[in-house]
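= Protein in question =
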Amino acid sequence: MTKKLWFQVGVGILIGLLIIKYFIEIQGIFSPFVIILKTIFIPLLLGGVLYYVTEPLQRLLEKRGLPRWASISTIIILLAGVVTGILLMIGNPIATQVNNLVKNAPMIATNIQETTDYIINNRDNLPPQVGEFVDSISNSIQEIAVKSSTWLVSVISGAVSATFTLILVPFFFIFMLKDHEKFAPNIYKIFTGERRTWVKETLEDIDRVLRNYVQGQVIISSILAIMMLIGYLIIKLEYALLLSIFAFFMNMIPFIGPWVSLVPAVVVAILQDPVLVIWVLVITLVAQQVESNLITPNIMGKSLDIHPLTVISIVLAAGNIAGFIGILIAIPTYAVLKVIVVNIYEERKKIKEAATKTV
């Protein structure tokens, strides 16, 4: 019985649960390491994204005969030029829209309050289901306000700490460009024989999955943000540029992100002209259909091969466990774990077949 796969998996799960249990009980010992990991995680994540975005360009430059230092310098100069150009092109419009948003914030808050008061005062004329929903919302307004203020304070403090953390991003990015070819060999050289081959192939698969995901998501998010910006400009929606930039970052989250980016656009449309809500919904629907049927299949293909329901479940669970950062890294983390599990399964299968042939 001990040789059965289900028994081995069950024992592995029990051992894993025991390790987690005892780790939680003595987690105070590891708090310094957790603080260090939290400090370097965000710059490492951003540096990794920049690396995967610019690595194809580095490979192209070095194929043309440029040495490593020249390719890195070229990429840094190009990135600085792109960022400067974007700031010059959209800096003034963004500043104008942010100032208008801050200036109109009291009026927006007043309109929202008036609309809320009107609905609450007329809830007797609403259908029973809507009335119950309004009552439940009104009963939790105070709790929402308290949570919102707490969230605002945490966001401000997080932004201050993130500013210092972001200083590390260029260092991680440059060292990834410089020494990325040394990372995998330093790991698989520890092993020998067939195990070394397996570790090398697994690391190559992980690198391929991460590269396809990061590069694909950046391209898809950029295309969707541009499509939404064009649509918002056509219907003359206020804060179109800010909403499109927000959509770019939200579209990094598969399936759920685009609908999250819809919420502020709908709120702005309601306050500007309720008729615009229909056009905002149409723009979002068209963009999603184009992305689902044309952009994603051609750019991402089936490189991740993850069912949409699995994606939604993973994103929601990661959000509850680790917040926004968890949502961002949930899918690539799942894809990496999936690669490792599949490779382990394939290796066990080869070993089993070899043993059967030998017998």
In short: The two ends are 20 Å apart (CA to CA). The mean pLDDT is 75. Residues 202 and 340 are 7 Å apart (CA to CA).
